[in-house]
């Protein structure tokens, strides 16, 4: 029971911590006109603190600290400086993933919360700061393996933020954070629902989106984060990539010195299979001693170069990632990608070294790491043709992938996994090329061949068929396929597949 609880909580808080720097429910309804007008009268960060917080978002800690220092000296117990100081410290910790800084961060958060508790300051900003700092603490505790404390901190933050919205319904920053928590809790797969009941945390996708949209649409100190979070959710779960890309590109044009926006440009182009644009964005990211080191950028670049068949360059980027990164997530995935680069380049000795490295460190909370660990443990040989095609599709090179797949020939001894992967890869290539009829036929073939095989090709085929039929307005057929995607009991990407299918079904209600 403890292990399942830990996995569920880690997954929830890892989703939440993606946005920590920027990033009873009946009191969370729509704002009335008078309340929106009153929002301008709510406490805000002064100009100095707003500038400091902008530097936090740009990932320039020294600049943020120099702006923050005089504010902390002038008003050491005020909510604004304490909140911005905590945002800076939690950003540094979660970006670096350096465990040696964990206890100092927790101690500083406890001190800030104690100061706020004792201060005579009244109003929404103080109440919001307490709940926000507690959420940051939950994220730190869970990421560094203290799940029980993290569960308690998460529960406190949720209830406190809910109380802020109840008492100050016009205070939009609280809507941003409460909405984010409501959405992620409401979207968790069913196999994690029991631990939410244990914590007493209600989630609601619809209410969460409503709250985030309010915070994103009205001016407030944290409107930028609300806009980014909402855009990323809609891109990931509601198939709205163009809107997210346009927002991030526009913001990047306005703030070319913002590393967070540079990172998001790379990430969004990569997710939409725009490899050339993603690499250009990677090379344009601001860098230097004034910025936080962001090793994960190298891991993303390694993937992009792998898609292009630049195996030596891909390996160098992943090696730099592993050298500079202090955390435990993505380590197994990086070792797996190093294996692929060596194996596809024909370097059997290096490939075996990296295959063994998969099992030597890191955690399996994230699906990418879990996939790598399963590859190591199950010792299933990869098919070179199918692997190249998969990478080409991930990179957006769909015609190349189809040509690669044309050389695949199944024989009597071909493993079932390979016989399922081939039509699924073809389906993905045709789907992304805008040929839905061919894609539907191949997705259906994959499902028929799979039966109850514990691989992700059939559930992903069902999910994609649901999207295709939903786009065509055939809601009943779409609903059948989304439910089918949920019905598969075990596969590599069950959590993300189930979450997407669940949210799609809610859209069809």
From TrEMBL:
It comes from the Bacteria. Gene3D superfamilies: Tetratricopeptide repeat domain (1.25.40.10). SUPFAM superfamilies: TPR-like (SSF48452). InterPro entries: TPR-like_helical_dom_sf. This is Tetratricopeptide repeat-containing protein. It comes from Hymenobacter gelipurpurascens.
């Amino acid at each position: 029971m403890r292990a399942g609880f830990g996995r569920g909580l880690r997954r929830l808080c890892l989703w939440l911590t993606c946005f920590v720097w920027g990033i009873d429910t009946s009191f969370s309804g729509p704002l009335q006109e008078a309340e929106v007008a009153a929002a301008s009268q709510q406490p805000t960060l002064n100009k100095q603190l707003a500038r400091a917080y902008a530097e936090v978002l740009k990932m320039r800690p020294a600049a943020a600290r120099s702006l923050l220092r005089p504010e902390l000296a002038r008003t050491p117990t005020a909510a604004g400086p304490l909140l911005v100081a905590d945002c800076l410290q939690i950003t540094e910790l979660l970006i670096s993933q350096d465990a040696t800084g964990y206890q100092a961060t927790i101690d500083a958060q406890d001190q800030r919360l104690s100061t706020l508790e004792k201060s005579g300051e009244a109003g929404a900003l103080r109440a919001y700061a307490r709940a926000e700092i507690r959420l940051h603490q939950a994220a730190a505790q869970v990421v560094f393996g203290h799940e029980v404390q993290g569960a308690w901190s998460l529960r406190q933050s949720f209830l406190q933020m809910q109380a802020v919205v109840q008492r100050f319904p016009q205070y939009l920053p609280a809507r941003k954070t409460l909405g984010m928590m409501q959405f992620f809790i409401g979207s968790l797969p069913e196999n994690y629902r029991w631990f939410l009941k244990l914590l007493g945390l209600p989630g609601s996708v619809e209410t969460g989106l409503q709250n985030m949209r309010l915070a994103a649409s009205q001016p407030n100190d944290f409107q930028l984060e609300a806009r980014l979070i909402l855009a990323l959710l809609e891109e990931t779960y509601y198939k709205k990539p163009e809107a997210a890309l346009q927002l991030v590109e526009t913001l990047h044009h306005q703030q070319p010195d913002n590393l967070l926006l540079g990172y998001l440009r790379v990430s969004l182009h990569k997710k939409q299979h725009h490899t050339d644009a993603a690499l250009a964005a990677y090379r344009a990211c601001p860098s230097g001693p004034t910025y936080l080191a962001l090793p994960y950028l190298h891991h993303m670049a390694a993937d992009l170069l792998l898609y292009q068949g630049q195996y030596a360059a891909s390996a160098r980027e992943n090696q730099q990632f592993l050298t500079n990164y202090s955390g435990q997530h993505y380590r197994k995935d990086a070792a797996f990608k190093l294996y692929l680069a060596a194996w596809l380049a024909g370097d059997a000795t290096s490939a075996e070294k990296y295959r063994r490295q998969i099992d030597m460190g890191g955690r399996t909370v994230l699906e990418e790491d879990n996939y790598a660990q399963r590859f190591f443990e199950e010792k299933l040989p990869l098919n070179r043709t199918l692997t190249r095609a998969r990478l080409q599709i991930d990179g957006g090179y769909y015609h190349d992938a189809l040509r690669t797949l044309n050389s695949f020939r199944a024989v009597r001894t071909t493993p079932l996994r390979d016989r399922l992967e081939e039509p699924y890869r073809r389906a993905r290539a045709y789907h992304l090329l805008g040929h839905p009829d061919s894609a539907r036929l191949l997705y259906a073939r994959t499902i028929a061949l799979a039966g109850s095989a514990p691989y992700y090709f059939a559930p992903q085929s069902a999910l994609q068929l649901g999207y295709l039929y939903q786009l065509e307005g055939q809601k009943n057929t779409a609903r059948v396929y989304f439910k089918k995607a949920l019905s598969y009991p075990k596969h590599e990407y069950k959590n993300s597949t189930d979450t997407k299918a669940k949210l799609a079904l809610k859209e069809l209600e």
